[in-house]
Every structure is written in C-alpha cells, then in structure tokens.
Design brief:
Helix content is about 20%, strand content about 40%. The protein starts with a helix and ends in a 5-residue tail after the last strand. It has one domain: outer membrane lipoprotein receptor (LolB), chain A (Clam). It has helices at about 5-20, 35-50, 115-120, 125-130, 135-140, and strands at about 50-65, 65-75, 80-90, 90-95, 100-105, 110-115, 140-145, 150-160, 165-170, 180-185, 190-200, 220. The protein is an alpha+beta fold. The longest helix is centred in the N-terminal third of the chain and has 17 residues, at about 5-20. A hairpin with a 5-residue loop joins strand 9 (about 165-170) and strand 10 (about 180-185).
C-alpha cells in the first residue's frame, strides 16, 4: 500500500481500537440483546480507562489491483505513543513517539517522518489515546448486528472522512474484546485488521517508542494523509 494510505489506515485502526472495549453483554440471539448505544458506551468506558495495550495483529489490504497481508505486534501507551512492529515483513515499523510519526521498512532507501500534530489534525489516534472518546460521536449512522461465533459488528461512516471512507466496521466479542476492524474507502479499497491476544494495561517500557534512523539512511518529510 502507498505510504499515505498506510498512514491513514493505521491511524483509523488505532482510533477505533482504543474506542472500543469491554463490558458484559448478552450474546446475539438471546432475549435481551444489547443495543448499539449500550455497546458503544461500554466500549468507550473500557478503552478510555486503559493506560497501555498490547495485541497481535494481521493486516490485509485489497484494492487498486493490489493485495497484501502483513502481521506483527501493536503496542500503545498514553499519552500519544504507539508502535506497529511488523514481523512480516520483518523490520517494517510505524511508530508514534509523541512528537513525530516514523515509517520505515528494513532495507528501505529512506525513513519517512511526519509531525504528530499533522496526524492529530486528521483524526489520528493521538487525541483518542488521551481517553474520553465517544464512539457514537465519531461514527455516523452507527448500527449493531450479530456476527459469526456470537460476536457483534458495529458499523458506521467516520465523521470528517465522508469523501474518503464509506464504511468502518468493528467486530467485538460478547465479552467486549475487539477482534477486527475493516475500513472501506471510496475507491473500493478495503483494509482489514484482525487482533489477537489483547493485553490491557500491559507493561510497555518507555524506550519501546524511541526510534533512531539507521545510519546512512536519510530522513524525509512525508506527505500527510488526505
């Protein structure tokens, strides 16, 4: 995927990964099913209370004649820090250190850097990492339906992204754990994230979010996602 699309998809995923979460709910098909409003409130409360998080992820992209699948570990710490550490392809990294966003693939000719405030201006994860997220205010037309294996999907259109994104779908278990995010863009491209092994408030050392460009590799200013 083009770097600018990668920036946006990763940012969108973290926005809603942090916005969604737990709370005991009834499984689909029981007599007193949870409503979209109730589930949204529960997921907001759960993730807004976290100070860190660790999870495995698989990211897939299909669009514009291209397909790819990548995987790794996601680490988040408040305020304003996150790291997508890829194991496949090994050495690829997307990191927010609170000041800059860094993008690099092992063996690449350059490191791309973008001021964190530019991501924040474009509904990046940064303001959500601080908590106080309200999912119902971020997705227009929020709907809840039953999914497979007793899970649920929350779907809507992200506010402020009407020209770029047609639909955002979040998959959560009956216990409230997020297991997937799907972003469908206006050009038909679809990015999916599957999450496993969520560890709320996992210990994440501060140095996890430090990035030093490899010796001899130039740093260039990246274009913000639009």
């Amino acid at each position: 995927m083009h770097t600018r699309k990668s920036i946006w998809a990763l940012a969108a995923a973290v926005i809603f990964f942090l916005a969604i979460g737990g709370g005991a709910i009834r499984a689909h098909g029981q007599s007193s099913a949870v409503s979209a409003h109730e589930l949204a409130q529960r997921v907001d409360q759960h993730y807004n209370q976290l100070h860190s998080l660790k999870a495995g992820f698989v990211e897939s992209y299909a669009g514009l004649g291209a397909r790819r699948t990548e995987s790794g570990t996601l680490l988040i710490a408040k305020p304003g820090r996150m790291k997508w550490q890829y194991s496949s392809p090994a050495g690829k990294i997307f990191l927010l250190d609170g000041k800059y966003a860094w993008f690099y693939t092992k063996g690449g000719a350059q490191v791309q850097r973008l001021p964190a405030k530019e991501l924040d201006d474009l509904r990046s994860p940064l303001r959500f990492l601080l908590g106080h997220t309200q999912l119902e205010k971020e997705l227009n037309g929020l709907k809840l339906v039953g999914a497979s294996n007793g899970q649920f999907t929350l779907a809507g259109q992200p506010k402020g992204q009407e020209k770029r994104v047609t639909r955002m779908t979040l998959t959560v278990t009956a216990a409230g754990t997020i297991t997937g995010i799907e972003v469908e863009e206006a050009d038909g491209a679809i990015t999916r994230f599957a999450f496993t092994g969520e560890q709320p408030n996992a210990p994440v050392p501060p140095q996890t979010f430090e990035f030093t460009p490899p010796k001899g590799v130039p740093v260039v200013d990246a274009m913000p996602p639009v």
